[in-house]
Amino acid sequence: MKTTMTRRDFLAATAASGAALVMSHRAEAGPFKTKLYKSLIGKPTEKTLASWKEAGFTGMETNASSVSPDEAAKSREIAEKLGMKIHSVLRGWTNFNSPKPDVVEQDIASVETALKAAKGYGADAVLLVPCRTGGMPMPEPWEFDIEFDEKTGHIKKVAAGDNSQYDKYIAAHNHATDTSRAAVRKLIPVAEKTGVVIALENVWNNLWVKPAIFRNFVASFDNPWVRAYFDIGNHVKYAPSEEWIRVLGKLIVKCHVKDFKLNPDGHGGKFCDIRDGSVDWPAVRKQLDAVGYNGWMTIEGSGRLSLEEKNRRLDLIIASK
Q1: pLDDT digit string (tens) for 200-217?
Q2: Is residue 41 part of a domain?
């Protein structure tokens, strides 16, 4: 029997098929708006990059931060030939709070070198921990209750009750904030020229240990070339990882993937392989999506796991499982 399709029928059929196509793409995209990429930390040799690629990774954060731009460019060529991306350079700890001006200037120069190397690698960020402090009384991680001046970033109190026992720590913290700001500001023109973000991290350095004050420190630069590098496992002892992500929000430019197992009482603990600790990974994935983080997830640690197992576990994290 011959049938005739009217214009109305055609439009209805087209709309239905279009809706089905949209739903299909949504299903393929999964429940998240953002995309995360898999990376590890190492030196960019052809052998290493090839083995990582075979295991399922697409990126590297290199800890070779003191190479020349030309050397870095050669590594970039190797990576790109393999379909890999060197996305970040790990500079690590500096001593911007040192009382010795020559030490501070030397460390500023080393970060300049790392920024120029990052440009050669084709990376878009350098991980920088401005300084660290310690050796004086300070609250336990679960005791921190920080009050600070939002304009200066200076701490007023670090715990409930009498804070006189923490006077030296408060003074050291405020000094570190001021000297770190001064040093990083000197580096901003280099960051802008190279097109590489200064990604500040507060890794176990007893500074900016709560989300609000770390956000205040990073945001105080009010500059797109200074942002936050967030390590998902480093700060579980201070606050849940998803809370850090919510508070830091759009300031986050890179993420390290690490896990930490809290003791049963929630006080103290130890690092462990990813997905074996206290990080609520589904909550982390959802919060990364909520703040609009599209970027690299670089595993740090978990050295006991094979490349294949690291890849499998990172796939589960990205899938919110």
Answers
A1: 999 889 999 999 999 999
A2: no
* Tally of domains in the chain: 1
Non-local CB neighbours of 95 within 8 Å, separated by 6+ positions: 103, 104, 107, 131
Closest C-alpha among 300, 272, 275 to residue 285:
275
Model-level pTM?
0.89
Domain with 244 in it? 47-131+179-318
**pLDDT digits 0-9 by tens, 3-12:** 333 434 433 4
**Amino acid at residue number 114:** A
CB atoms within 10 A of CB 28: 7
Residue 223 sits in a domain whose CATH number is 3.20.20.150
**DSSP output for 197-245:** EEEE---SSSSS-SHHHHHHHHHTT--TTEEEEEETTTTTTTS-HHHHH
Pairing mode, strands 147-148 and 155-157: antiparallel
Buried b (16+ CB within 10 A) or exposed e, 213-230: bbbbbbbbbebebbbbbb
